[in-house]
Amino acid sequence: MNAKQVIEVGALWLARICALLLFLFWGAFFLEHLQEWFLREDGRLPPFGAWVGQFLHLAMLVGLGLIIFRPGWGAIVTVVGTVSFFASIGYKGFPYIAFLNLPPVVFAAVYTAMRKHHNAEQVAEHREIGGISLEK
Q1: Which one in 13, 21, 49, 91 has a CA-CA gap of 20 to 30 Å to 30?
Q2: pLDDT tens, position by position, for the chain (136 residues)?
């Protein structure tokens, strides 16, 4: 395994580990807010803003979970979900709180970029097979 492959695999696993830990962290808040808003003793439905906030929070969680399986798409969904969620709830620490989700996004982006570069190198190697060029 060469240095590029070590960095690629390391970035992938760092993205997965960070995403899993953040998924568990934000998931605990998600479950607590589900209970707070949707399992009320008085039986009333929550306001529309709570529905939107929970949906965007779920989008953030889906993005973090997706990083584990599809790092490129997961990073995109995580960024969109995170920014949308924190912007929608009007959190005073926004945008700084959103930086908590940055590590898995960066590692997933590094992995995806290196993977595409690696695949492009493989394609370039196979354009000439046995002295015969595959170029037209």
Answers
A1: 13
A2: 788 788 888 888 888 999 999 999 999 999 999 998 888 888 888 999 899 999 999 999 999 999 999 888 999 999 999 989 988 888 777 777 778 888 888 888 888 888 776 665 555 555 555 555 545 4
What is the rounded distance in angstroms from the CA atom of residue 69 to the CA atom of residue 119? 18
Residue 119 corresponds to which tokens in the numbers above? 């695949």
Place of tokens 């097979």: 129
N-to-C CA span, the chain: 33
DSSP string, 28-97: HHHHHHHHHHHS-TT-PPPPHHHHHHHHHHHHHHHHHHHHHH-HHHHHHHHHHHHHHHHHHHT-TTTTGG
